[in-house]
Amino acid sequence: MNIRWTVILAIITLILLGWFYSLNQTDSELAELIKQEESPEYVGNKMNTVIYSPTGAKQYVALSEKVEYYEYDGHTDFYTSIVYLFDIQHEKIQQTESWKLSANKATLTKDNMLYLDGNVLGESLLPQSKLQRFETESAVVNLTTQDISSDKQVKINGLNFTSIGLKLTGNLQQQVATLKEQVKTHYEISKTNDETDESQNEQ
Fold first, then answer.
1. What DSSP string describes 38-51?
2. Are residues 63 and 30 in the same domain?
3. Over the stretch 169-194, which tens digit does the pLDDT of each residue have?
4. Which of 48, 56, 67, 173 has the most CB atoms lying inside 10 A of its own CB?
């Protein structure tokens, strides 16, 4: 009699364990289906995003290998990104690309601030720009005003000069940049035609 009850209890125990396990599995599967609050609303690959100003002119174009949009705070993450800025002073006259910005990751907030991180490179697309290029590890760009700042070491190249500093403030539209803290600058002195000819002769 005791043996029979032992077997029955063992069977009931196994059934209860199986039922409990199936409930846990169902819960975990449901949890995977339910969107977490801080997960992206949508994800896209190899995206080309074009943003227009209120007047209908292009403000910037973003190219990226991967895009994630988060609805809870309205920010967008771009991975392996390239952003083209346009001349904002003459947008009604012509659509001219003025700057090319690239980074490992770019985060765009709903208030039009662009946070660049990892191998940040800015290149002017205007041949006569006083500020031609900058390199750093992180930078912040206001896409409405094109103000730029960085708290990391920055190297900038301009017409006939190269500078390195630990902080940067400036404006890409106005082609100005100010370096702060431990600034080192190297100037290239343009040679006259006679001096150029003479150096060539010496070679």
1. TS-SEEEEEEEEEE
2. no
3. 999 989 888 998 888 988 877 654 44
4. 67
Q: Which of 141, 147, 137 is nearest to 117 (CA)?
A: 137
Q: Which helix (H) or strand (E) holds 136?
A: strand 131-142
What is the domain range of residue 119? 42-187
**CA dist., res. 86 & res. 148, Å (int):** 15
Question: Parallel, antiparallel, or unpaired for β 161-165 and 131-142?
Answer: unpaired
Q: Is residue 199 part of a domain?
A: no
Identify whether 73 is part of a domain: yes
Q: Are residues 108 and 134 in the same domain?
A: yes
Beta strand 131-142 with 147-150 is antiparallel
Asked whether residue 18 falls in the same domain as residue 93, the answer is no
| CATH assignment of the domain containing 98 | 2.60.450.10
Residue 187 CB neighbour total at 10 angstroms? 10
Between CA 145 and CA 155, with CA 150 as vertex, the angle to 5 degrees is 110
Q: What domain count does the chain have?
A: 2
pTM of the full predicted structure? 0.73
pLDDT tens-place string over residues 91-135: 555 678 899 999 999 999 989 999 999 999 999 998 888 899 999
- Rounded to 5°, angle at Cα 107 from 102 and 108: 105
